[in-house]
Design goal:
The structure is a single chain. This protein has 236 residues and is of the alpha+beta class. It is built from 9 helices and 8 strands. Strands 2-1-3-4 form a 4-stranded antiparallel β-sheet. Strands 6-5-7-8 form a 4-stranded antiparallel β-sheet. α1 runs parallel beside α4. The chain is flat and about 65 Å long.
Length: 236
């Protein structure tokens, strides 16, 4: 019984430590996963699993090891931010894959990138004809950024000299899962009474609303739980 309790305690501790470390390292580390981020993630993952499952290792020793590796990862991140040369060495740098419409085969070989993978990445960006691409760059996080040739760029309102609409704002979520998000109301100087009046205009109560949001165009969108759809397509 004691061993089970110890395993549970170790697992909870390992999870808590990794959550703290992840918060300290920040969102950018998780999203980009550069070279040193990848090494740090694998190492910390292995150490954490040992903390949770290997009861032959003292918890105190494992925590010290985890904190040491976390400190190294954090230090490398700070050095990369402050020094461009070190950032290139630790994190790498973007690689040009297509330049002036020409595929750079040597760069693709260095990055272990096949034509099949390149075509897949382009298709995911709604580019099915490679001749539409002026430049393609393999970014540090493994994503490919693409600039189309001028004749294949989408037309914008500026190109047509059309007036733009009113200024858009970030959406404000009001209700989620039938619960009022009071922090958003306070942040934008909105009152519960105002929200209840808006809900009432739709003939609903707050408990009947799955989701409500002020969209970027200033309009309020309501999604009630009852969709009034007799034959939903994905109903199981």
């Amino acid at each position: 019984m004691e061993s089970i309790v110890e395993i549970i305690a170790r697992a909870v501790l390992a999870f808590a430590i990794m959550m703290i470390i992840t918060r300290v390292l920040g969102k950018q580390t998780i999203a980009q996963m550069t070279y040193h981020d990848f090494v740090a993630a694998i190492t910390l993952g292995a150490l954490t699993s040992n903390l949770a499952l290997n009861n032959m290792i003292k918890i105190s020793h494992m925590i010290v090891t985890l904190l040491t590796f976390s400190g190294i990862a954090y230090l490398l991140m700070i050095l990369s931010l402050k020094n461009r040369k070190m950032r290139k060495w630790f994190s790498g740098q973007p690689t040009m894959i297509i330049q002036d419409g020409r595929i750079l085969e040597d760069n693709m070989r260095k990055q272990k990138l096949s034509l099949d993978t390149l075509n897949q990445e382009l298709r995911e960006r709604n580019i099915f004809n490679i001749e539409e691409v002026q430049y393609a760059v393999l970014e540090l996080n493994g994503e490919i950024s693409v600039l189309r040739k001028p004749q294949f760029l989408p037309v914008s309102r500026g190109d047509l000299q059309l007036k733009t609409g009113k200024r858009q704002t970030f959406p404000i979520e009001l209700i989620m899962d039938g619960q009022i998000i009071q922090s958003n109301l306070r942040q934008h100087s909105l009152t519960i009474e105002w929200l209840l009046s808006q809900v009432g205009k739709k003939g609903l109560s707050v408990a009947e609303v799955n989701y409500a949001v002020i969209s970027s165009n200033g309009q309020i969108y309501f999604d009630p739980y009852d969709d009034h759809i007799s034959n939903p397509i994905d109903k199981e």
